[in-house]
Write a structure and sequence with these properties.
Two copies of one chain form a homodimer. In chain A, 27% of the residues lie in helices and 31% in strands. Chain A has helices at residues 33-36, 55-68, 76-89, 134-139, 162-173, 216-227, 275-291, and strands spanning 7-12, 15-22, 40-48, 51-52, 97-104, 122-129, 141-147, 178-183, 186-190, 194-199, 202-205, 232-234, 237-238, 247-252, 256-263, 266-267. In chain A, the strands form two sheets. In chain A, strands 7, 8, 9, 10, 11, 12, 13, 14, 15 and 16 form a ten-stranded mixed beta sheet that branches. In chain A, strands 2-1-6-5-3-4 form a six-stranded antiparallel beta sheet. In chain A, helix 6 (216-227) packs across helix 7 (275-291). Chain A is globular. The interface between A and B is large, with 53 and 54 residues.
Chain lengths: 293, 293
């Protein structure tokens, strides 16, 4: 973390009009439903050289998550304005950055049911310099598999991420960079990425169901495959088929497209980033530079 | 909420030595892992006339939850001291109260994996007057069933309660007081209670697995059944058997033993609190008065 003052944005019970504050001065109430119930949603957005990648898509998905939880918040223009102001205040008008947004159901005395309608959601936004891990993209990463014990609404980008935390930690402790979740015998997704296999020239990824997040980078990958005539099948990859895959890669907002060259210590394909994965990385880079304008 | 000043206890990055503060002055960092990842655990403890009910059991379960998540906190004496001081400060030396404790993995810049070992957990404790809902205990409540879409480690009392929130809200909107979760066709538990059926004089409740919390009141119920020679079977209650139950009740720290007289609008048994349920309520009351000394 830089020692330079980092600004954040907060709109909450105690800051009802919304405030830009140094991040370490932002205060959340212990009775915030985000702190006591994981009752909130979030987004992570990238800029490339100061330009947003797929901002409207992220904000649309954010609204989808809010609506799915019936959190009464729809002031997307407020969020957009806060993001832009934070990029300026944090001196991120050029270069790469990530923006983190979170909205919770607000502050109320603890009780499971929703608080009264008069309770306003809490809005929090932060923005920081992002340094891509170029080595991972170039050389590929190791992954482990982990039992997908998450809840049944992984299509909602909620802050209830404890299962992701535990799986990711186990990955790190096993010298891996990602944990690939397996539910009912098939790969669902990673702890913060979507997962794609390649077999005989075909790209395979879990269909959009309640068990995965509809990733924005996932959409881009599917779009690029369509553009370049790469066949795609949105279907299940059984865990037992992992050794038969020619290539494996993960995709996400900060991960972009990253080859997975090893799972549970065993090499995938040649044990090096695959040809199709590398081609998609090149295509994605062009796509991003065109999209983030 | 009373307008009288309510004290709470906080030990965190910005209050490393621990502080008693008016509750509305307690500040949580937005980068607390409890706010961004549901990376924490909690307990709710009751006092009866100023005396704790099963305090050591609650603290033992709290430690179990912490250990299950590998949150590096074991200063139970600190928690005990904070609880006692809060009861005094909040003028709760007599009468009924609830104590809420929460410990999270602490404050660190957002990343799924655990923060460095130097990061200290956040400790938060509050205590408030509790007014039992005597009508519910006397007349029984209505419940609905809800698909149990929670994660696979419901034996850990984590703050990842979003599925509980959504189910409980649906119950309230349907004129019910509790939602009874059904997973794979069988009753698991309620949103904040354990569930017991009675059929032909036998008490039936879900066995202790990863799909339910090992409730302390649940233990008391089983203990009372053993004492009074009531047969118990820890087995599954299929959802389709609900209409065949003679009685149904829920049990929990604040709920105690409460009859369920209706599920999804249909009466259970006679549609009134059952005989065995009422006998257990009486026995539980005696048990509590003896235990909370």
């Amino acid at each position: 973390m830089s020692s330079r003052k980092e600004w954040a944005y907060i709109k909450s019970k105690t800051a009802p009009k919304g405030l830009f504050l140094p991040k370490d001065k932002v205060n959340i109430s212990p009775n915030d439903r985000g702190f006591m119930f994981a009752d909130g949603v979030y987004e992570v957005i990238r800029t490339y050289n100061g330009k947003f990648y797929r901002l409207p898509e992220h904000l649309k998905r954010f609204q989808h998550s809010l609506d799915a939880l019936r959190i009464n918040f729809s002031d997307i223009p407020l969020i957009e304005a806060a993001i832009k102001e934070l990029l300026a205040r944090n001196k991120l008008p050029t270069g790469d950055a990530t923006i983190y947004l979170q909205v919770t159901r607000g502050v109320w005395q603890r009780a499971h049911e929703f608080p009264p309608k008069s309770v306003r959601p809490t809005v929090y936004v932060e923005a920081a310099r992002f340094v891509p891990q170029k080595e991972y993209a170039r050389l590929g990463i190791a992954a482990i598999t982990a039992s997908d014990i998450r809840w049944g609404r992984c299509d909602i980008k909620s802050i209830g991420l404890l299962a992701n935390v535990l799986a990711r930690q186990r990955a790190v402790e096993n010298g891996a960079m990602e944990a690939i979740f397996v539910r009912d015998g098939v790969i669902t997704e990673g702890t913060h990425t979507n997962v794609f296999g390649v077999q005989k020239g075909e790209v395979i990824t879990h269909p959009k169901t309640n068990h995965i997040l509809a990733g924005i980078t996932r959409e881009a990958v599917l779009h690029l495959c369509a553009t370049y005539g790469i066949p795609v099948c949105e279907t299940f990859i059984p865990e037992c088929n992992i050794p038969k895959l020619d290539e494996l890669f993960i995709a996400g907002t900060t991960t972009e497209i990253t080859p997975v060259i090893k799972v549970n210590g065993k090499p995938i394909g040649t044990g090096k980033p695959g040809k199709l994965t590398k081609a998609l990385q090149v295509a994605f880079r062009d796509h991003v530079l065109a999209a983030a304008r």
